[in-house]
């Protein structure tokens, strides 16, 4: 509806000020139908309706909410003449549509019209919101240091109010004890192990559960990082680790960077300008010795320690510095020239690193028959010696050394005296033509070296700046860690091994027969894909054969080590399953992942020729050529599932996702219970409470599981009853016309699934027992299997497998194609094209949409073909 004209606002004001409300709504009111009342949950679609009869031209109906005009209301107006002339009486119907009920939509609704200068308002209708609590804020995942307080927030609202919150830790309700708060904010004093937190919102309509937040416990920040000893080329550092909860530290990482990177100015910041060098150190002891460092050089270091849950925060950058060393080389270009009784000695500073602060030079000279004389010259690089005595000194030589606070460096080679060169003598030419050729060659060589250096500059950068720092060696009986530049620091493996997963040795030993080498599995076409994973056709290369398998990949990432160990522990249990009606696990392998966390699990299962039971039932009813499935076959399917579930219950396994889609048909048309993606083994007690919130199959879940997320073997019995209903209806969806959000209220009111058409009364009675409100009143799987087997024996005998005949109705195909949710198998023998009723045995029935029953003289129900197949007596018009 468009914007309401200004005249309507003026009319509304005049109506409210000038006329009493009861007079305007009751005297001569044109309204013959007033808005009703709507009360429902969020997201409900509702419709309000006003009806009036007027003389002459129909007016425009305006909707009010709490006395205010709805300018952008989603309303439609229908006008129907009650006479032949437009001036006769008209019937006007206005409908207001509320597409998704929200809290802002609640209030009092009325219709208003303006007729002949008067304003009329209908009787009010009320729209109210009432449903399960709605979360405004849910707890978020966090990583906190061990034994460190933290806060979580959770907030929900109705209506109906009040809404009370209950916090759960690891799926166990938290009592309001000191240290915790039961209000919107949970103030936890600290944890020593990784835990999950969620909150439940309760009101008069029921319970809503928030998302589950994982609180990962990391080690505390190390402290007291200090230098134990310093040498010109060595530093020994130590630190004290922080608390890490129940998880022992596996290693510590130490980062070092030269202070000329700017860390000295940016001290305390977490990231220096350039990536620092990271070393991994085994602990204990919490100590590290660094060798082959640069003398008299400032560094910055910091430490972080890691447990199985992750790394601790880094310590602040600590400035450290190596002590001074002696110069590495002697002074350069030492010369000594004699002029009478004086000797002029000159030299240049050493070209090699001084390894400290230059304090001065020392000079030594001696003659053939005179003792050596030592002199401390200071920082000057020129000195004049006075020769005393009338006799000249024979064979006088001079040597020079540089020194720092660490001591003297190497002495230069002895230099003999040279004759004095007068100052007036012109200096020799610095360059001559041969030197130009030498310079040109040097420039060409330098250019080649520069090109090569630019190519290798990134790889050699660390080595150029750090030298051969941190190279592993063993000296003086102490562990020394050094560093040598490698080609790459970011290698990613594509496969995970048992040793790299960091799991316990006991679990590792149990997995020896479960893990499969990823390279032995070849993947083929995708057979099916869902929200949580995909199933692909594959081949497993064994020692002496190639096995056709179904490979299931998962889209849900495993984020913590505890989730990984849970997954592998369940795989070990599933490997031990040995029952003809339970899917057998062949093995598990891992493949590399681009996501953070652990590698992706890949589950290897037997290849099922006929696919899943739900697809088989659906195609038998809605395929291109429908197939009649006899009651004996349907009851056999139910008995197979009950037998498999009985076996799982004796193994103390809860399936939690039992449905026809998760049951597979093998080559013998026997049903195998499969897809244990939601299954859990009960280690203690007889029930399992779901901690981590996941998307669940609402229409198959027991009523108590919907209410408080508690699962038992009797909740699997409820799901089995729904699965029986699926089989009896040939694949129909349970609770047709009922939304997922309405299922809980629907069941709480006592409603259950209706008896399917052509379903035996005894079978429906068995289903109904599975849906008893009290779980203790439901039968066990052993009772269900026994009752179904007795029902199957009481039925009249069906056709033998070799007497049930099937016709290929697809004349356009050159051969018969198999079909199944889990992939196909080798096609059966091609029928004779001359015979339009070429028949196959029941073992060949693997595509319900391709074959129909041929007429047979054997007793039992049959379905006639429409093309060339004779029908039995009395059924010439088809089934």
Description:
The protein has 879 residues and is of the alpha+beta class. It has 7 domains: 6-129, Immunoglobulins (Immunoglobulin-like, Sandwich); 134-218, Immunoglobulins (Immunoglobulin-like); 219-323 and 445-491, Sandwich (Immunoglobulin-like), CATH 2.60.40.10; 332-419, Immunoglobulin-like (Sandwich); 498-606, Phosphorylase Kinase, domain 1 (2-Layer Sandwich); 631-794, Transferase(Phosphotransferase) domain 1 (Transferase(Phosphotransferase), domain 1); 798-879, no CATH class. The protein has 12 helices and 53 strands. Strands 2, 4, 5, 8, 9 and 10 form a 6-stranded mixed sheet that branches. Strands 12, 15, 16, 18, 19 and 20 form a 6-stranded mixed sheet that branches. The longest helix is centred in the middle third of the chain and has 34 residues, at 433-466. 30% of the residues are buried. The model is unreliable at 1-26, 177-182, 261-273, 462-496, 677-693 and 800-879 (pLDDT under 50).
């Amino acid at each position: 509806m468009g914007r309401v004209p200004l005249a309507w606002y003026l009319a509304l004001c005049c109506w409210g000020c000038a006329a009493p409300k009861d007079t305007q709504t009751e005297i001569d009111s044109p309204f013959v139908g007033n808005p009703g009342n709507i009360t429902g949950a969020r997201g409900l679609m509702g419709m309000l309706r006003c009806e009036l009869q007027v003389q002459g031209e129909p007016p425009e109906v305006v909707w009010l909410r709490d006395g205010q005009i709805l300018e952008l209301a989603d309303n439609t107006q229908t006008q129907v003449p009650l006479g032949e002339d437009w001036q006769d009486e008209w019937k006007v119907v206005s409908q207001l549509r509320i597409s998704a009920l929200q809290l802002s939509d609640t209030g009092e609704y009325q219709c208003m019209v303006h007729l002949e200068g008067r304003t009329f308002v209908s009787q009010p209708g009320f729209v109210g919101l009432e449903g399960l609590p709605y979360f405004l804020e849910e707890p978020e995942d966090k990583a906190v240091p061990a034994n460190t307080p933290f806060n979580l927030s959770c907030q929900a609202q109705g209506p109906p109010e009040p809404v009370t919150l209950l916090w759960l830790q690891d799926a166990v309700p938290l009592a309001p004890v000191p240290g915790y708060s039961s209000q919107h904010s949970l103030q936890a004093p600290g944890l020593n192990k990784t835990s999950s937190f969620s909150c439940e919102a309760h009101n008069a309509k029921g319970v809503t559960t928030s998302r589950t937040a994982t609180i990962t416990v990391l080690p505390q920040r190390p402290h007291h990082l200090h230098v134990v000893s310093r040498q010109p080329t060595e530093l020994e550092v130590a630190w004290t680790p922080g608390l890490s909860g129940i998880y022992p530290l596996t290693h510590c990482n130490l980062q070092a960077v030269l202070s000329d990177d700017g860390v000295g100015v940016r001290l305390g910041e977490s990231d220096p300008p350039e990536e620092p060098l990271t070393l991994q150190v085994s602990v204990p002891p919490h100590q590290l010795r660094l060798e082959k460092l640069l003398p008299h050089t400032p560094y910055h270091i910091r430490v972080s320690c890691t447990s199985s849950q992750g790394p601790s925060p880094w310590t602040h950058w600590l400035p450290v510095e190596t002590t001074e060393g002696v110069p590495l080389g002697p002074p350069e270009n030492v010369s000594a020239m004699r002029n009478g009784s004086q000797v002029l000695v000159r030299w240049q500073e050493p070209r090699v690193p001084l390894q400290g602060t230059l304090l001065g030079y020392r000079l030594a000279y001696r003659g053939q028959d005179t003792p050596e004389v030592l002199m401390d010259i200071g920082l000057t690089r020129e000195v004049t010696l006075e020769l005393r005595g009338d006799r000249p000194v024979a064979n006088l030589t001079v040597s020079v050394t540089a020194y720092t606070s660490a001591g003297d460096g190497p002495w230069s080679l002895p230099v003999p005296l040279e004759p004095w060169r007068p100052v007036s003598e012109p200096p020799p030419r610095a360059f001559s033509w041969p030197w130009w050729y030498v310079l040109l060659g040097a420039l060409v060589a330098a250019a080649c070296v520069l090109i090569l250096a630019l190519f290798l500059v990134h790889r050699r950068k660390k080595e150029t700046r750090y030298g051969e720092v941190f190279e592993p060696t063993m000296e003086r009986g102490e562990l020394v860690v050094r560093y040598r530049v490698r080609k790459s620091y970011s290698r990613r493996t594509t496969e995970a091994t048992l040793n790299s997963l960091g799991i316990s040795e006991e679990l590792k030993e149990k997995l020896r027969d479960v893990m499969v080498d990823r390279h032995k599995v070849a993947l083929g076409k995708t057979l099916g894909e869902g929200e949580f994973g995909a199933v692909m056709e594959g081949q497993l290369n064994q020692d002496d054969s190639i096995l056709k398998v179904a490979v299931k990949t998962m889209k849900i990432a495993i984020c913590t080590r505890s989730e990984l160990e849970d997954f592998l522990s369940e795989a070990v249990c599933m490997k031990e399953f040995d029952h003809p009606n339970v899917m057998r696990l062949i093995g598990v392998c891992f493949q590399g992942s681009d996501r953070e966390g652990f590698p992706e699990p890949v589950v290897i299962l037997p290849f099922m020729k006929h696919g899943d039971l739900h697809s088989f039932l659906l195609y038998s009813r809605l395929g291109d050529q429908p197939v009649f499935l006899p009651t004996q076959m349907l009851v056999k399917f139910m008995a197979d599932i009950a037998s498999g579930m009985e076996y799982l219950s004796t193994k103390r396994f809860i399936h939690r996702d039992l449905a026809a889609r998760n049951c597979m048909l093998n080559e013998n048309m026997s049903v195998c219970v499969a897809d244990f993606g939601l299954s859990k083994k009960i280690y203690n007690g007889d029930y399992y409470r779901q901690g981590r919130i996941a998307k669940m199959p609402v229409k198959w879940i027991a009523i108590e599981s919907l209410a408080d997320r508690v699962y038992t073997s009797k909740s699997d019995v409820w799901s089995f009853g729904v699965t029986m209903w699926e089989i009896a209806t040939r694949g129909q969806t349970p609770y047709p016309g009922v939304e997922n959000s309405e299922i809980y209220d629907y069941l709480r009111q006592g409603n259950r699934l209706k008896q399917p058409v052509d379903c035996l009364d005894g079978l429906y009675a068995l289903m109904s027992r599975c849906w008893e409100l009290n779980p203790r009143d439901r039968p066990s799987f052993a009772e269900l299997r026994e009752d179904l087997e007795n029902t199957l024996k009481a039925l009249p005998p069906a056709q033998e497998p070799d007497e049930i005949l099937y016709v290929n109705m697809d004349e356009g195909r050159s051969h018969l194609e198999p079909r199944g949710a889990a992939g196909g198998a080798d096609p059966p023998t091609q029928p004779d094209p001359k015979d339009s009723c070429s028949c196959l045995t029941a073992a060949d029935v693997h595509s319900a949409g391709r074959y129909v029953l041929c007429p047979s003289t054997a007793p039992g129900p049959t379905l006639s073909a429409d093309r060339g197949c004779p029908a039995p007596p009395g059924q010439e018009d088809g089934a």
